[in-house]
C-alpha cells in the first residue's frame, strides 16, 4: 500500500504545483518509508510515541481528527467521516486532537504529516483527507478496506443497480 499511497500523494502535490509540491515530495518519501514512523523530535517524548502506537493498535481503522464522527469540527475531518460512512465503515476508533494538544502535535510528528485528519488502516498511515478522497474517487479505497477485512457498502450499491 505504501507505494500506491506515495504515488497518489505525489500526484496530488503535483496538481497543486510550484515549489510546495517539490518540497512536500521529499516529506512524502520519508513519511511512507518502509522503516515505519519517523522518530519524534525532542518536543514529543518516547511516552507520546508509545501512546500513539498504543492508540493505533486499538482498531483496524483509526482516525485522528478535529471533533468526533458525530460532530466533526472542521470540513476536512467531516469529509473523512462522510467518505468512511459512504463505505459503511462504522465503529472505527477516532481521537479528537482538539482535546489534547500533545496528541495533536505528537501525531503530526509521528507520521511526519503536517495536517489533521490522519487516517490509519491496521496501524499503517494512509494519509489525510486529500488522499482518502482520491482513493475513494479512483476505487482504491474499496480494495484497501477489503485488505483489512472491511466490505465496502458501495459494492452492495453497485450490485443493487444491476
Automatic annotation (TrEMBL):
Keywords: 2Fe-2S, Iron, Iron-sulfur, Metal-binding, Redox-active center, Signal. GO terms for biological process: hemopoiesis; iron-sulfur cluster assembly. It holds the Pfam family Glutaredoxin. GO terms for cellular component: mitochondrial matrix. Residues 1-20 form the signal peptide. Gene3D superfamilies: Glutaredoxin. PANTHER family: GLUTAREDOXIN FAMILY MEMBER, GLUTAREDOXIN-RELATED PROTEIN 5, MITOCHONDRIAL. This is Glutaredoxin-related protein 5, mitochondrial. It comes from Petromyzon marinus (Sea lamprey).
Amino acid at each position: 500500500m505504501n507505494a500506491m499511497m506515495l504515488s497518489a500523494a505525489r500526484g496530488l502535490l503535483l496538481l497543486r504545483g510550484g515549489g510546495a509540491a517539490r518540497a512536500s515530495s521529499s516529506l512524502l518519501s520519508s513519511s511512507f518509508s518502509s522503516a515505519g514512523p519517523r522518530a519524534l523530535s525532542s518536543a514529543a517524548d518516547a511516552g507520546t510515541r508509545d501512546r500513539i502506537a498504543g492508540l493505533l493498535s486499538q482498531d483496524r481503522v483509526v482516525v485522528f481528527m478535529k471533533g468526533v464522527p458525530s460532530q466533526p469540527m472542521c470540513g476536512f475531518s467531516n469529509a473523512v467521516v462522510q467518505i468512511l460512512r459512504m463505505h459503511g465503515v462504522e465503529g472505527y476508533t477516532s481521537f479528537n486532537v482538539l482535546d489534547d494538544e500533545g496528541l495533536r502535535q505528537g501525531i503530526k510528528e509521528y507520521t511526519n504529516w503536517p495536517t489533521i485528519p490522519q487516517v490509519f488502516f491496521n496501524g499503517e498511515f494512509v494519509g489525510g483527507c486529500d488522499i482518502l478522497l482520491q482513493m475513494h474517487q479512483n476505487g482504491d479505497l474499496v480494495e484497501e478496506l477489503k485488505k483489512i477485512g472491511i466490505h465496502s457498502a458501495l459494492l452492495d450499491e453497485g450490485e443493487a443497480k444491476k
